[in-house]
Amino acid sequence: MTGEVRVAREGALAWVTLSHPGKLNAMSRAMWRELRQVFTALPQDAGLRGVVLRGEGGHFCAGGDISEYPSFRFAPESLREFHEDEVWAGLQAVLDCDVPVVAQIEGACMGAGVEISACCDIRIAGESSRFGAPIAKLGFPMAPREAALVAAAVGNATAREMLLEAAVFDAAEMKLRGFLNRLRPDAAVAAEAEATAHRIAALAPQAARMNKQTFRALATAAAVPPDAYAYASSAEHREGITAFLHKRKPAFTS
Amino acid sequence: MTGEVRVAREGALAWVTLSHPGKLNAMSRAMWRELRQVFTALPQDAGLRGVVLRGEGGHFCAGGDISEYPSFRFAPESLREFHEDEVWAGLQAVLDCDVPVVAQIEGACMGAGVEISACCDIRIAGESSRFGAPIAKLGFPMAPREAALVAAAVGNATAREMLLEAAVFDAAEMKLRGFLNRLRPDAAVAAEAEATAHRIAALAPQAARMNKQTFRALATAAAVPPDAYAYASSAEHREGITAFLHKRKPAFTS
Amino acid sequence: MTGEVRVAREGALAWVTLSHPGKLNAMSRAMWRELRQVFTALPQDAGLRGVVLRGEGGHFCAGGDISEYPSFRFAPESLREFHEDEVWAGLQAVLDCDVPVVAQIEGACMGAGVEISACCDIRIAGESSRFGAPIAKLGFPMAPREAALVAAAVGNATAREMLLEAAVFDAAEMKLRGFLNRLRPDAAVAAEAEATAHRIAALAPQAARMNKQTFRALATAAAVPPDAYAYASSAEHREGITAFLHKRKPAFTS
Predict the structure, then answer these.
(1) Three-state SS at A126
(2) Model pLDDT, residue B230
(3) Does C177 contact chain B (CB < 8 Å)?
(4) Which of the other chains make 3 or more beta carbon contacts under 8 angstroms with chain C?
(5) pTM given for the model
(6) Inter-chain CB proximity B157 and A176 less than 8 Å
(7) Could you tell me the domains of chain B?
(8) Among the partner residues A178, A212, A237, nearest to B140 by beta-carbon distance
């Protein structure tokens, strides 16, 4: 039993669930590969408008599955392969998803949990959730691209505190530090994540995909697509403005 | 009646006022062009030491003038011309102003309002002001350079929440998230903005212009001017240090 | 008497103390040179695991030693030499230190104090400490690289407020704005800084150095070292993971 990443579709939304029972959903190598597969497939689905990413059983993700580490971490080649080909490929697939992704964060959000939630667009957390990356206790540094991702999301000062002091933060502090968009009582996190995904799904889907492409270009200093204004004559664009001017609710059916 | 951008000089200060009565100062195409003209002219004035940018009638700016949109938004060429030649040219003129600009933010600060205030140096807001860019309800994304500007000013997490979820924030939340420098009761915002501009005007004006050039270079990754130390022998520099050492107030007359 | 920068070793820790009695530890030219020398020497010491940087007598550092300014500030060549060869060389040495540096901030933290603490990894401050860079009162701008450093650490909005309005902030506000990691009552700051350094010293030292190299590469957009995974077979890495799996405390003896 090495855990799994499950996906379920319902209407315009998809639920992706990290599941590793008994290990607070710690990411195994198999789960990193499944995360990539799931998120690579999602954006192909034109009817999809929102994704909720969550963990099973009251926790988001407690980190990596350390029981697997002795089998590959102590040789540079297999260690590089793990971080670059499995972990980063999984994270990149979440980052590359053109559909908005809401992180529903409950309980432990540590190490890999921070990295995965850092790839999401909107982070909603329960009041008792906890955040950190205390891998200095395990004798190793964060891989460079993962550190860049985390530092951009939690801020430089917090990233240093997490990695150099092995500090762990509660949800209120992570809200204050700008990582979390919203806090809710633990029992209300799932409902708020779902409501958020429904709010997103009611908005213009092409605009969401274009905004995500722009944000991705900003994060990577890549060139913005040259066709930034090709959407001008789209049905969605006409519908939104026309509905507003006629004082009616827009219908964004793609 | 398509609104206007007015400018008034008084001593070392200039007041720039967005005015579009009945539309909460929503920016028309004419207003974007006027914004550029006003801010392109301001820094030429050597005696100018501070600018207050505000909206008329208790609101900063509610966004764009949507009634004009059907006339140009549905064709890529005219849409690009609007965003690049009118909107961005107006915003760039505010960014290029070497004199410190204080945003006096009351009431609605939405869409174009967020963009314009993001170009200011210091943002002072009333407690009931509100912030967002819910254009996903109108069926279109934020133009890439405008999104980069907004994300840099409000932070990446907030920018995604504004654009992907159409979230609207109150002033206390925007202070917490680092966009606002200072909150005041609504009735006290104008007085605080004026007091701030006067405080700025009493400080060394050449130093302010050089600091703004440095900040602009940082924001655009442009090279810092090679003459970063040419100010050494200036009267202003001598006056500031000499006054301090003689325990008297400096007189920065340019 | 032009002040001094002292260093003391004790076990795995070093204490670096800014000392300029009667001037709230204002940095003289001699002190900038000593800061560089001290921090250039520290990382050579393989047994060193943590550094506490502090000021003597209840203050961190009140800025530069203005009494020296007339002797070199009014000519571009000597002004450039001061900022680039003395100030920046001192700051760069702190930034280049591969061992985690904790700033113990009490009382005044102004100008040079903000710059020096911005080079530290973790900032712990007393509740009555105060922060700013009101050099616009002295008639000069912040040097470009120093402004870039400060803006990255305090945020763009705060940097503009400090430099353009000569604003001064209390510790609670600087915690809220993300510059400070932790506040403590004034009398408890030294103990918390020491406890933090001891916590850091108990963690994996090679991992700390590698994390600091990664953060430095991120800050300067430099290439990450190509040997990011060469640590795989190190004793420290094996010890951390093995200890965890055997449910014992790791012993990171380098």
Answers:
(1) strand
(2) 84
(3) yes
(4) A, B
(5) 0.95
(6) no
(7) 4-201 (3.90.226.10), 205-245 (no CATH)
(8) A237
